[in-house]
Amino acid sequence: MVVCIIGTTLFIHLTTMFCILVPWLWPLRTLLSKLSFLVLNASTSLLLINYYLCIVSNPGTVYSYYQPPPETALELTPVMDYLEVDPATDVLSPHYCHSCQRYKPPRAHHCRYCSRCILRMDHHCSWIANCVGHGNQAHFIRFLFWSCISCWCCVLVIVARLEVVLVGAVRGHSNLEMESGELIIVCMNVVVLTPMVTMVSMLFYNQIQLLLTNETTIENLKKNRYSSYSYAGRRVDLNENPYDLGNWFENVQQVLGENPLFWLLPNFQFHSKPSWSGVSGDEEVWHRDGHWFPIGTHVQRILHE
Ligand SMILES: [Zn+2]
Ligand SMILES: [Zn+2]
């Protein structure tokens, strides 16, 4: 799958660039030709870099020494993700993964393809032969963004080229006709690009919707589990995502980083080694390492009513 995606991307990019854009549009040296040339090359480079980062990045491993917070800390946090009811004893107990034989932090899930628990797991993606989780979701969103730009840029170049040919044919300008070689390339690109642009755009739209509300794909699919759960010994009815911080900007910051100037650029800085160990650690370090996530004030209000 990885080889297939890289091969298809390079095929579309190189044929659009060297068989359509450079021979036809580039000699005109218009603003449009320069802009298309720049955007096409930059977006394809950025999509490939982010694709590589998605594949090689660790999506998020649970520390072997991770322990759920003590009961006193649970008083301050929604237990929905920390605890589950043991059906045998009907007692609340911390989430425990029997396959990995360790406790699961909030938002972590066991991936049966990767055979381990993944921090803030979004989904397992066969496109990248890896899970999308806390460690690489930012790369995945950037990869989708630059894929959309690259694909739509190719579509625009092909549409612009076809428009010139059609207008030339209508007006009888034989010098604007397409040669058979170029025609074959255009037809092949249309066949490959149509499903690709549809899929990438839909996936990107879906990821952006989740990003704006700070929700993972798994959480979105299991939305009903927010509806009612136990907190500090009482039942709480909650129909909202507790990790939604209330405004889209802060939600995006949770995944793409603090500074919006770097949201779309590749980030080669991998997560720092944990300086924390034990149970009563620094929440910020927990947060950076994907073992803890802040909850929205709207939810905190409901919990402390
Ligand atoms: Zn596990
Ligand atoms: Zn996986």
From TrEMBL:
Organism: Rhizoclosmatium globosum
Official protein name in the record: Palmitoyltransferase
One Pfam family it belongs to: DHHC
Domain Palmitoyltransferase DHHC: 94-223
Location(s), subcellular: Membrane
Primary localization: membrane
Keywords: Acyltransferase, Lipoprotein, Membrane, Palmitate, Transferase, Transmembrane, Transmembrane helix
PANTHER family for this protein: PALMITOYLTRANSFERASE ZDHHC16
The EC number(s) this enzyme carries: 2.3.1.225
InterPro entries: Palmitoyltrfase_DHHC, PFA4/ZDH16/20/ERF2-like
Free-text comment about domains: The DHHC domain is required for palmitoyltransferase activity.
Membrane protein topology class: Multi-pass membrane protein
One GO cellular component, as annotated: membrane
Entry keyword tRNA-binding: no
A GO molecular-function descriptor: protein-cysteine S-palmitoyltransferase activity
Catalysed reactions listed for this entry: L-cysteinyl-[protein] + hexadecanoyl-CoA = S-hexadecanoyl-L-cysteinyl-[protein] + CoA
Family classification: Belongs to the DHHC palmitoyltransferase family.
Regions that span the bilayer: 6-26, 38-58, 143-162, 183-205
